[in-house]
Structure formats: structure tokens, C-alpha cells
Write a structure and sequence with these properties.
493 residues; 7-stranded mixed β-sheet; 24 strands; 19% strand
């Protein structure tokens, strides 16, 4: 019997790094090492020193290997999936010049509005990049940096996304993939390359950016001697291009050209996202028209306020997160960090509909409903972007795959089920971002198409399937009415 070989899939998220030690043949998750991050900033600022990500990656890999009990010699490949959109600026020696601006840093909202206007409006951006700039996108952060920290902008020799920075530390090669690159707003999903006109407008050059590999599973190099020493791994193992966290989750679910197409996914984490893999290039100003990690497209809508916002409400009320009941007449829009979808970067939370008999449990339930409504509202637009009719019974009956930390919470699951009226599938495979990264690593190590690899691994997954319940249209319409009427005067739009 040949010796067991494993790959390591790294999920470098906003709050922590996870390193999944995964059996190359079966996809069995043998161990997951973890290490925390530090996020700083007040108001709209959210920053992290990129060196924190590298140290966390080293710690997480070491912890994962120790937990697995395997020899480092069994590892044949590694890939990183990282939080999207963050701006990493490096000097000529490849060292970070300043803390990275994270995806949920909303200070660049004015720059986003200016960029939209300069190109001729939202439709012009959708035609070029697939995505309309909002404060989350990297291009807006670079514009903000040039205007607010010009000395560091002038000193910048290279610009990277979070996963690019880590991949370069692993392989010594400046590389990215179409998926994560498509979240910058300077990469064109229409041409599959950096857009030279947009780069000129932004004051960037191609030489400052990483080369775009064909897919996230492309082998872009080998683990360097210095990285191998830091990680305790063999030098020379395969390093994949890697991708963004949402693209990696899609791969982990087996979504893509070699797997499921046009099947919606709802992710409940720090952010809430709804997405699908499709061969249809999305062209909706209401969505982010990303590329996928495997050559397909990944239309996606993202909200800033999801599980952390609801947990904050629970803390304020002195309740456990599952001590919730339906909100009744109360509507709570928990936009505690501004909001991206809808585009309300300066918004704050809004509570209305209080009565004498409103209970704390109802207020918490209203927070769940407001967060779930915000991301579910984009689902029909997502389906249209995939070329589907949301009213078609076959499309309406497609199950919604529920992932992320919230998918493990009873109240989250029941709230989504009630407000969507759809059947739900809660995948049995945990750590989907890390699992997707592991599939990319396996692909780079010679395993074939990463989506096909993940789909094969998932054949043994024990998914939970929940039938549809009647949709709570009363609550849906009440929340929608409040949001539509309040967005301008009360939410800071």
C-alpha cells in the first residue's frame, strides 16, 4: 500500500488562519490547525499587519501537522485562500509598508463614488470589470491611500491582495488567480486580464501587480527553502496560485465547470454572501460579477453585517445567540459596520416597530431576520445573472446550500428557511474554504481539475437536507418596506 500523502489548504480569513491537513486521495480532513489575527481600527477603519497573517499561517500549519500525527514528508502541496479585496502595499524588498486595509474598511466610500462617476456610471464598470466599485473593493482603497497616505503610496513598489502576499511568501513568485483578481476593480472579466485604462486612472502599472495564473489550482512554483524552514515542511512541494475565500468555498462545494453550475449558495459568516458558479458572465450592477477559480464565473452579493452583528445584538440584550423568537412587529436592520449590499457605507443599525409587549427575544429574532433578509434579497438578482428565471418552478425549487459558521446555528438555519421558502442543504463537509484550498493544492500537485477533485471528495459527505417550509411573506414584506423607506434619511445612504 503506498504511503499516505496529504495537502494543506489554508483559509486566511478576517479573524484567523486555519490550515486543513487533507488526505489527497479521499479528501478526509485529518486535522485543522488554527491561529488568530488582530484587527485594528475605529469607526470605518479595519486594518491588519500582513506579517500577522504570515506568522498565523506558520502557527496554524505547525498545529495542524502536530494534530494529524503525520510526518512533514507526507505533504505534497499547499494553497492559500484569503479574504478578498484587502490592500497590501510592499516596498522594493517585499516588506509591508503599512497595515493592510481590509475588505470591511469603509473609509474609501467617497473614492468609490468618485470612481463610478469618472468612468460614466455603474453600467460602464459592469461592462469592464463585472463589478461596480464600492468601499470594499481594492481599487477604492488604493485611491484612498493615494489621497490620505501619499508618502506610503509613493513608496509602494508592489500591490498585493492578502492571499497573493502569502502565496508569494511560500513560493517566491508574484502570482494571483482570476477569481481573487476580479475583486480588485482593475481586472477585466470581459478580457480576462488587467485593464490598462483602469490601471492608468488609478496610478498603477502592471509591473506592480502579480501575474494572473490560469486557475487557482495552477502550480505557480515550489515551496522555497526559507518558507519550508518557517513552516516545517519539505522544500520543493507544489504551491498553487490559490484564490479568494468565496471562490475557494465554491471549489470546496464542488461548484464549477466540472461540478454543479447555477446552484445558489448562502454563506453566513462575518459577512453574508450569496453566490453561484456559472458559465454566464454576470452583468448586473446589483452584484459583484467575479470570476471563479476554475475558469467559470462567480456572481456574488455580499453584506458586511451578518453573524458578528447579530452576536453583538445578543450581547447587548444579555441573551445567548439562540435565545431568539420571530421578531413580530419589530424590524431591526443590524448595519453596525455600514453596509455594502445595499450600498450604504455610512449607515448604522436601525430599530423600528417597538411595542409595549415586544420582548428581548423578539428583538434578537428581528436582528436575525434583518441580516438574513439583506443577503437573501439579492438571490433573485443572482439567479437572473446566471441566465435563469427565478419564477421558474424548477429554479425556485433548487435547494439553497447553507455554509459558514451560521449554518451550524439553529436560529440562523430556521430564519433562512422561513424567509427563503426554499429547501436547504447544509453540507457535511466542514471548513469549506480550507477544503477548497486543499483541492487547489491537490490540483497543483498533479491531481487534475480542482472542482472535480472536490466533487469526488464530497461523495462521502453526509449532508443535512431540510425540506422547504411556507415562506413568511409577511415578515419579508415588512422588512423590505422599512429598508426601502428608511435607506436615505435614516441609514445614511
Amino acid at each position: 500500500m503506498p504511503p499516505r500523502t496529504v495537502v494543506i489548504g489554508v483559509d486566511s480569513s478576517t479573524q484567523s488562519t486555519k490550515a486543513a491537513v487533507t488526505d489527497t486521495e479521499t479528501g478526509e480532513l485529518l486535522a485543522v490547525g488554527r491561529a488568530p489575527h488582530v484587527v485594528t481600527g475605529e469607526g470605518g477603519a479595519r486594518e491588519t499587519d500582513p506579517e500577522v497573517w504570515w506568522l498565523a499561517l506558520c502557527d496554524a500549519v505547525a498545529a495542524g501537522l502536530k494534530e494529524s500525527g503525520l510526518s512533514p514528508s507526507s505533504v505534497v502541496g499547499i494553497a492559500v485562500a484569503g479574504q478578498q479585496h484587502g490592500l497590501v502595499t510592499l516596498d522594493r524588498a517585499g516588506r509591508p509598508l503599512r497595515p493592510a486595509l481590509l475588505w470591511n474598511d469603509t473609509r474609501s466610500a467617497p473614492q468609490a463614488a468618485a470612481l463610478v462617476a469618472e468612468l460614466g456610471g455603474p453600467e460602464a464598470w459592469t461592462a469592464r470589470t463585472g463589478t461596480v466599485p464600492v468601499a470594499s473593493m481594492t481599487a477604492t482603497k488604493w485611491r484612498w491611500l493615494r489621497e490620505n497616505d501619499p508618502s506610503n503610496a509613493e513608496a509602494t513598489a508592489s500591490v498585493r491582495l492578502p492571499h497573493d502576499f502569502l502565496t508569494e511568501r511560500l513560493a517566491g513568485v508574484a502570482a494571483t488567480d482570476p477569481g481573487d483578481a476580479s475583486g480588485t476593480c482593475w481586472y477585466s472579466t470581459a478580457t480576462g486580464a488587467y485593464d490598462p485604462d483602469l490601471l492608468e486612472r488609478l496610478g498603477l502599472s502592471v509591473s506592480m501587480l502579480p501575474e494572473v495564473a490560469a486557475t487557482g489550482g495552477t502550480r505557480i512554483g515550489s515551496l522555497t527553502e526559507s518558507a519550508a524552514e518557517a513552516l516545517g515542511l519539505p522544500a520543493g512541494i507544489a504551491v498553487a496560485a490559490g484564490t479568494g475565500d468565496n471562490m475557494s468555498a465554491a471549489v470546496g462545494l464542488g461548484l464549477g465547470g466540472a461540478g454543479l453550475l447555477d446552484h445558489p449558495v448562502l454563506s453566513l459568516g462575518t459577512s453574508g454572501t450569496v453566490f453561484a458558479a456559472s458559465r454566464t458572465r454576470p452583468a448586473s450592477t446589483a452584484l459583484s460579477g467575479f470570476a471563479g477559480a476554475d475558469g467559470t464565473y462567480l456572481p456574488l452579493a455580499c453584506t458586511l453585517n451578518c453573524t458578528l452583528a447579530v452576536d453583538k445584538v445578543a450581547s447587548l440584550l444579555g441573551l445567548h445567540r439562540d435565545d431568539a423568537t420571530p421578531g413580530g412587529e419589530a424590524v431591526l436592520l443590524p448595519y453596525l459596520d455600514g453596509e455594502r449590499t445595499p450600498d450604504l457605507p455610512t449607515s448604522s443599525g436601525l430599530l423600528t416597530g417597538l411595542r409595549h409587549d415586544t420582548t428581548p427575544q423578539q428583538l434578537l429574532g428581528a436582528a436575525y431576520e434583518g441580516a438574513a433578509f439583506t443577503v437573501l434579497r439579492a438571490l433573485d438578482e443572482l439567479l437572473l445573472a446566471c441566465g435563469l428565471d427565478p419564477a421558474d418552478p424548477e429554479v425556485a425549487g433548487r435547494p439553497l446550500r447553507l455554509i459558514g459558521g451560521g449554518a451550524q446555528g439553529r436560529t440562523w438555519v430556521e430564519t433562512v428557511r422561513r424567509l427563503s421558502g426554499r429547501p436547504l442543504i447544509v453540507p457535511g463537509s466542514g471548513e469549506l474554504v480550507a477544503l477548497g484550498a486543499a483541492a487547489l493544492a491537490a490540483s497543483a500537485a498533479g491531481g487534475g481539475d480542482p472542482v472535480a477533485v472536490a466533487a469526488r471528495w464530497n461523495e462521502k459527505s453526509e449532508d443535512a437536507e431540510l425540506p422547504a417550509v411556507e415562506r413568511d411573506t409577511e415578515t419579508w414584506e415588512r422588512i423590505g418596506s422599512v429598508l426601502d423607506r428608511a435607506s436615505e434619511p435614516l441609514l445614511g445612504g
